Amino acid sequence: MSYAGDVTPEQAWSVLRDEPGAVLVDVRTRAEWSYVGLPDLSAAGKDVVLVEWQTFPDGAVNDGFTADLAAAGVPKDAPVYFLCRSGVRSVAAAEAATREGWTRSHNVLDGFEGPHDDQRHRSVSGWKVAGLPWVQG
């Protein structure tokens, strides 16, 4: 079963801002949340749901990912936007959520910081580069 699709950070922000039931799930690690920053949904009156796809520090896939989503209160019928660093882990998270009944799971393209550029630097695309609200962890 395929997830609902990919959206740009700007498209995700628009829905998160305008649709009361929409949820953003950041699937990066605790270290990334702390040291790189987080999307800031306070202007939309929301908090980001934080559920690791891969655990820190070992990098193992979180076998309890969908149980953690449920425990965080993410409704299965809500539009859910999954975000990671570059848009790779969030695809896996959206696919897993879809398999477990979250019917409106989306991947946020380019994630929070975007993929590497030619010099192996990040922050060339993604949520931060799009100028969307964020805070340092």
TrEMBL record:
Q: Which residues form the signal peptide?
A: none
Q: Give UniProt keywords alphabetically.
A: Transferase
Q: Name one Pfam family in it.
A: Rhodanese
Top-level division of the source organism's lineage: Bacteria
Limits of the Rhodanese domain? 18-124
Which GO molecular-function terms appear in the entry?
Answer: transferase activity
Q: Which CDD domains match?
A: RHOD_1
Please give the PANTHER family that the UniProt record associates with this protein.
RHODANESE-LIKE DOMAIN-CONTAINING PROTEIN 4, CHLOROPLASTIC (PTHR47377:SF1)
Q: What is the name of the protein in this document?
A: Sulfurtransferase
Which species is the source of this protein? Terrabacter aerolatus
